[in-house]
Amino acid sequence: MRTEDVLAAIKTGLWRWDNASGIVSLDAEAARLLGLPAEPVELTEGAVRSRFHPVDWNEIDGIVSLAVAEDTLAEARLRIMDESGRVLRTVRSRSKPMVDGTDYRLVGTLQEVAEPQPGTAARTPVTGEWRRSREAFLLDAGRALAEARSTAEVLRVAASLSMPGFSPDGLAVFGVAGDRLTIIGHHGHSAGDEGPFAEMALDTDYPAAEVVRTGRAIYLPTPDDYRDRYPATWPLAQRFGRESWAFLPLIVAGRTMGAWMAAFKYRVGFTPDERSVLTTVARMLAQALTRAGVAESERELSLGLQRAMMPVLGPAIPGMEVAARYVPTGGGLQVGGDWYDMIQLPGGRIAFVIGDVQGHDVRAAGLMGQLRIALRAYASEGHRPDAVLSRASRFLYGMTEDDHGAARFATCLYLEVDPATGTLDIARAGHPDPAIRMADGTVLLRPTDGGLPLGIVPDTDYPTTRLTLEPGETLMICTDGLLETGGHDLDTGWIRVRKLLEAYEPGAETLDALADSLVQAVHGPGSHHTTGPLADRREDDIAVLLLSRTAEPARLVAPPRRTAMSVAQAEPERIAAARQRLRELLHDWADEDQVDAAVLMVSEMVTNVLVHTDGDALLVAEASGDHGTRRLRVEVADASDELPHRRRPGEMASSGRGLVLMELLAHAWGVDPRGEGKTIWFELYEDGAEVPAAGGPAPGGPSGDAVA
To answer: What are the PPM-type phosphatase domain coordinates in residue numbering (predicted)?
Structure first.
């Protein structure tokens, strides 16, 4: 009996599909199964395609590609449709792809199969519901693996995957190190179970080793298959009590980087659809492991670069405590242009530097390292703060002027401190102002004179501001990342930082604890629930440096709270800053009306100097005494010898009422000649008692109008 007669007797048809010509040849039985007359026929691919269910036809390309890659049979269940779209029958196709270059020919059989019984759809290889579940699973698995950022995360995701209709209970990922097979990670096994499989030679008779050698998947549906094919290593796998195994290559860019094992406690037939799912997961897993490995290498490189560039704070400073933190941005290589430094200077003085080179990339980190070295060199030569920044600006301008339009700039704050006196000489190049926490917990921004950021123009002047850090006070300087990260701008970010500084207790907490709390407020878990008013969460590098002067022994009287600033003729806008600074100084004053009165008088006094003299105004405000009984004394000095005089403004006059304000609002006020110039002052008492200062004039002061 001929083979064709045997096949016809068992209702099995033959077909041949030539991918190059697009012609499909059917024998009589195959034509009948497709709903055509029972006679041999040659059809175009489109004519045959119209006989299959569209969903099933879409599966053929994937099944054939898988069979070509694994050199196995292409097997599928296909629903046959008539012209009206009604399903006639379900056939099973088994064919062998024969590859010729980029083309292939399929030669195989078609055989009718019975419809699945109710309740068995979950284990049926091809159903519409199974396909929908598979597509959803692959989409979810791809998303989860794409989001994994480390090898450990990739392995956790792989272990949590629940495949549609069949899920492995044991997983292992093998890597290659030279001529050895290693285990990257595993799941579903006890600790130490990987011992016999670790550091295995690639020529070992073991499925994972063969997969790495050949680049082809290996499916072992039963223990007998495993034992017959790999008798040498079967005893190693037998003790785990598994029934089926799949070993798939992890291939990236045509290179086999390892193998993935999926083991099952129940029998799995590994149908083409199941193999397709496993193969797709293996490809995604290989890509995820590669990305994670690259990311980990980049993180290790960037962290090593940052450690090499970031300084270690020098030896302890007598009478002072120092703390600093640096946190790179959350994305990319995690390198950036922020830095801080501490420089020992001749004569016992110490220099502190904090800055921010534009950008968050390797170029910014490289410029930061060069700029930091240049600043250390200029400071060590003995230059004053203004000269150090001027030279640094010229240096950075020369470094970036040839970047073809990609010039970078840097903000910087440089200060020198005398530990014995607490004197601070500060020069600032476009950087945020320093903040000082006073001994009583009040936190103030200390505006300082400044110039353009470094590198904008080659020759720039940077004026120097002198402050005094009193015993018990803490200075904070930081980059804008501490203020703006988390959807904040400089103003709302400052409010967040000020609360933390006010809550700091020097006796109960260390300065390092304060530095940690400042960073945690931005990058800690709670920061995601306290975002600023801006829509986005802008990420930036963070550098913060804290300097605290050791407090003197406790005194019976609280230390005075003091602030000072100058207002130049060319800077009338600083009057608003003077008002704000006074409000911050009196943030806990008992009577809010007195605060408003003090702010109004300061505004009038400083304005009078700018309008009626040719010099600058120097404002000094001091609050002394215990809370509830404090005295506020505010002095405004100028270089004019002309004393104020009383005026009688008309009803429509726009000036001349300053004296009325002083007499109505101040508990005491007066004018003191001081050699070249004079000082106008007033005092307010928190408890309201009108007790003039010793040696000062009685309330009401001299006859004269202190303000215009």
So the answer is: 317-549
Angle between helices 574-585 and 592-612 (to 10 degrees): 150
Residue 664 — left, alpha, or beta (φ > 0 → left; ψ -120 to 50 → alpha)?
Answer: alpha
**Residues 6+ away with beta carbon under 8 Å from 249:** 211, 212, 215, 216, 217, 256, 258, 259, 260, 282
- How confident is the model over 456-496, as pLDDT tens digits? 888 889 999 988 898 889 999 999 888 888 778 888 888 88
- What does the alpha-carbon distance between residue 258 and residue 183 come to, in Å, rounded to a whole number? 9
**Cβ atoms of 61 and 45 closer than 8 Å:** no
Give the whole-angstrom CA distance, residue 693 versus residue 622: 13
583-628 tens-digit pLDDT: 988 988 989 999 999 999 999 899 888 888 888 889 999 998 888 8
Asked whether 384 and 464 are in contact (CB, 8 A), the reply is yes
d(CA 477, CA 436) in angstroms, rounded, equals 9
Q: In the numeric block, which tokens belong to residue 125?
A: 């290889």
The Cα 577–Cα 567 span in angstroms is 9
Query: How far apart, in whole angstroms, are the C-alpha atoms of residue 439 and residue 493?
Result: 23
pLDDT at 140 over 80: no
Start-to-end C-alpha separation, the chain: 126
- For residues 477 and 19, the model is more confident at 477
Sign of CA dihedral 413, 417, 421, 422: positive
Reported as type and span, the H/E element at residue 68 is helix 54-70
Nearest to 189 by CA among 151, 225, 236: 236
Sequence-distant (≥ 6) Cβ neighbours of residue 268 within 8 angstroms: 166, 221, 243, 244, 246, 274
Query: Tens of pLDDT along 636-690?
Result: 998 887 776 665 655 554 555 676 788 888 999 888 887 678 888 999 998 876 6
Collapsing DSSP states into helix, strand and coil, what is residue 484?
A: helix
Q: What is the DSSP letter of 122?
A: G
Tell me the pairing of strands 74-81 and 87-100. Answer: antiparallel
Query: Would you call 649 helix, strand, or coil by DSSP?
Result: coil
Element (H, E) at 410: strand 410-418
Q: Are 365 and 337 in contact (CB under 8 A)?
A: yes
How high is the pLDDT of residue 117? 42
Closest by CA to 77, choosing from 34, 28, 31, 112, is 112
Measured CA distances, 305 to 10, 30, 332, 354, 400 (Å): 73, 68, 14, 18, 21
CB 560 within 8 A of CB 626: no
* 440 vs 423, more confident: 423
Q: Check residue 240 and give its pLDDT.
A: 85
Place of tokens 């290889």: 125
Contact call for residues 58 and 43 (beta carbons, < 8 A) = no
Cα separation, 327 vs 370, in Å, equals: 20
Q: Which residue has the tokens 């000062």?
A: 696
